[in-house]
Structure prediction request, 340 residues.
Amino acid sequence: MEQGLNGGLIRLKIGKIPNDILQKIILDKIGSSREEVLIRPKIGEDCCAVDFGEHVCVLSSDPVTGAVNEVGRIAVHVSCNDIASCGVEPIGLVATILAPPGTTEGELDSVMKQLCETAGSINVDIIGGHTEITSAVCRFVIVTTAIGRALKGRVVTTSGARAGNDVVMTKTAGVEGTAIIAFDKEAELLKALGRDLVDRAKEFMGRISVVKEGIVAGEFGVDSMHDVTEGGILGAAWEISEASGCGLCLYKDRIPVAYETQKICGFYGINPLKLISSGCMLITCGNGALLVEKLKEAGIGAAVIGKITADKDRRVLIVDGGLPEEIRQPESDELYKVVG
Prediction:
């Protein structure tokens, strides 16, 4: 059963569609006719932008499918983070909630409280949506669309990275994945790693917004930003390279990985650099060291982890001073090896 695209026999893995298939089956079919659309669908670009005269409207939509607990909180952040990666403050959120048969009023109430409390914490209004019980899902699936507004010419794109830019990373690798696994596999991890570590890992759920760093970086003036979701640090780096047409070089020993993430990933035998990482942003700019200082002044940990290069065919990770390892297009996220 090995046939390709037109034969349609290859079964796709859980998670985001591989980028080569996404391009051939999805993106290549999308036409363009409206001149008001300023940013269109492209690998690595998570937002679109529509011309509204002096301003542009920035929009992004995302589902939450890989988590059982805290789905409402995650749903707010995943789409608002995309808006923030354009250097834009999110304003409103449209949420569609699909719940499985047997859902109780209490469970729905808990998810809605998470949505409302999380949106309020980043000054975002929930402005619409839809809620239903459906046998099409076996657990809560929430799809959110975030909306922001910016002056024309002030929107940062993933494709803006330029050769010579520093690559700056905020927070630590695998933030969201660490939290999801700690919640969804709590009983198992308690026996293996202990209560203190699991509780600390669960607290990572409070770190998955990048709205603050997106606004700081937008005001600083950067060339590109990309929030790190499925595929982790290496997946996001590959997408920046793909979108900008540049190469990149990252240094593994410069990439911050929290102790809790190291222990959980070690227990399950997964790679923290390929683990879903909402809460972490990759940013490219001419003076990464100065941006790191600005971010730290705002209370956001950050580090320069590499460089954008001119050779678009060279995407490498330097491991402990050894031979470079090729950074390949992201496959199914490491999360699904644990909670899939």
Notes: Residues 158-339 form a domain with the Phosphoribosyl-aminoimidazole Synthetase; Chain A, domain 2 fold (CATH 3.90.650.10). The chain has three domains: 1-30, 31-151, 158-339.
